[in-house]
Design brief:
Elements lengths: L1 H39 L7 H21 L11 E4 H19 L2 E6 L5 E4 L1 H18 L5 E10 L2 E8 L6 H6 L15 H11 L3 E7 L3 E9 L3
Parallel strand pairs: 2-4
Antiparallel strand pairs: 1-3, 4-5, 5-7, 6-7
Helix pairs in contact: 1-2, 3-4, 4-6
Bound molecules: adenosine-5'-diphosphate and magnesium ion (MG).
Length: 226
């Protein structure tokens, strides 16, 4: 239909813009990274912990930029074995300051440990970041946000992200994976689309249950690798 054609043109354009912006951002980042390395190798400086955090966050920005490039051209992705519970712990740690700021209680429940997956660890990390961001943006202070890892069959694990936020109408839910669909003033409408793409590429599925004023649960099922 005409609407779909317009959307795919928009997506193509966004991809081209993203690729251009990504390139422009990478240049100053290379400079910053060089100075950080210089500071790290100075034996007298007493901010080692801070500069190391800055360095690793710079690397993350680089990966996020790379993530946006999936919109323009299929990238060569490096697949490896990795521990899913480690990724979830990492993401939770990353969001702790933001949860505190919003007065939201974050809970991580690992029913299973040592779950090994095969894929692109940073892309999956990006999915959980996107989903937790959405959950935080939908939730008022005093509420709880829970991320849970469980096994639903010998070959399949589930990560569920449950919030007690504003929830979604059926109409919103139906459009959630559409590129550029957003109900937010400053939304991109790309987070769910990118997340679905990454999960599908990892042989997984994504399901959403939501009730207006009660909250939302996103369930991601992924195949384990032994
Ligand atoms: P963005 O967050 O930039 O709006 P997304 O693709 O991440 O784009 O999400 C699309 C839309 O889906 C959001 O604008 C919001 O309306 C809805 N949505 C996603 N997650 C949630 C959630 N946990 N609770 C309520 N609404 C949500
Ligand atoms: Mg979002």
């Amino acid at each position: 239909t005409e609407k779909m054609i317009i959307q795919s043109e928009k997506l193509q354009l966004a991809g081209e813009i993203a690729a251009g912006v990504a390139h422009e951002i990478r240049n100053p980042m290379t400079v910053i990274s060089g100075f950080m390395q210089m500071m790290n190798s100075d034996p007298n400086h007493s901010y080692k912990e801070y500069t190391q955090v800055i360095q690793s966050e710079l690397e993350r920005i680089n990966l996020i930029i790379g993530e946006f490039l999936v919109l323009s051209k299929p990238q060569a992705i490096i697949r490896r074995h990795f521990m899913l519970d480690h990724v979830l712990k990492d993401v939770c740690l990353l969001f702790q300051p933001e949860l505190n700021l919003h007065g939201i209680e974050g809970k991580l429940v690992l029913e299973e440990k040592d779950i090994q997956l095969y894929g692109e660890q940073n892309q999956l990390k990006q999915v959980f970041i996107n989903l937790i961001k959405n959950a935080i943006e939908a939730t008022e202070s005093g509420r709880t946000l829970e991320m849970r890892l469980s096994r639903i069959s010998p070959q399949t694990v589930q990560v569920s992200i449950r919030d007690e936020g504003i929830g979604m109408t059926k109409d919103v839910l139906q459009q959630i994976f559409q590129p550029f669909f957003t109900t937010k003033q400053k939304g991109t409408g790309l987070g769910m689309m990118i997340s679905e793409k990454i999960i599908t590429e990892h042989g997984g599925t994504i399901e959403i249950d939501s009730e207006v004023n009660l909250g939302t649960t996103v369930r991601i099922n992924l195949p384990v690798s032994n």
